[in-house]
Amino acid sequence: MQELQRPSASTQAQADQDEFVEFFRAGDRTAGAFECVGCGYGAVVRAELPTCPVCRGSLWERSVWTPFARALNGLGERLRQ
Fold first, then answer.
1. Distances (CA, A) of 55 to 20, 31, 39, 50
2. Structural domain range at position 28
3. Is-above-0.90 flag for pTM?
4. Strand 59-62 and strand 29-36: pairing?
């Protein structure tokens, strides 16, 4: 059996304060765009966070949401035509 080695302190990743991820639980009252930690399902919520409808997970994190992302997809292609 092969023994697992832990990385030394010099090779471990160090998280900066900017890399902090805040998690939310199903039932928390909040607003914004969220992704299920378990499966990545995305939801926009303005009330109580639900249980994930895909994997039944209850842990969420904020996602980056831009309201015009879909509208801008392929814009360069359309302008060249």
1. 25, 21, 7, 12
2. 21-65
3. no
4. antiparallel
